[in-house]
Amino acid sequence: MLNIIIFGAPGCGKGTQSELLIEAFNLRHISAGQLLREEIAANTEVGREAEKYVSKGHLVPDNMINGIIENIVCGWKNGFSGIIFDGYPRTLGQAEELEKIMDKLNKSTSLLIDLRVPEEELIKRLLSRAKTSGRSDDNIDIIRNRFKIYESETRPVMDFYKSLGKYHAVEGLSSVEGVFANIKEKIESLKR
Length: 192
Ligand code: ADP
Hints:
alpha/beta
């Protein structure tokens, strides 16, 4: 099993690279942000609660997202070669919980790929995405908030996976294909 965490600041290209990885390695995709937006759009109880956080650029409480992720992963049986976690885990508490979920399922995380892109470029990308995304959290004040939270809450996840020897940084500023080639090379070296 190839269980990858795709990691990095908002706008770094996690979603784009996830799509390519799914195709190339027959993976199932979990996008935490997408799942939350679906709950919000369906106006479920969880969605109504989540909206209060997402619209401000805050993280939803760990127990809310952990529950959603666990339900989905536990429901998957056969026919795939691994999972790509996109936007999860985003706090140390989530990372610890993910490791527990994987243990329970007799699986393990293989590696965390940190897509590194300078902040000015990220802001440019997010503002340009804002024109078409229709996302309530793609505006400059909320974007700045999301960066702040990334630095304070999400970065520790990186150190956690470093300590497990599963951390790998990839430069995320080159072309989509260039970034993907680097990620693929890393995964292939892992399989050898
Ligand atoms: P981006 O990576 O561009 O910030 P996402 O779609 O991954 O976008 O996330 C959008 C929003 O959804 C986050 O700002 C946050 O409010 C919420 N969210 C996503 N993933 C998580 C998570 N793992 N834990 C808590 N909140 C989350």
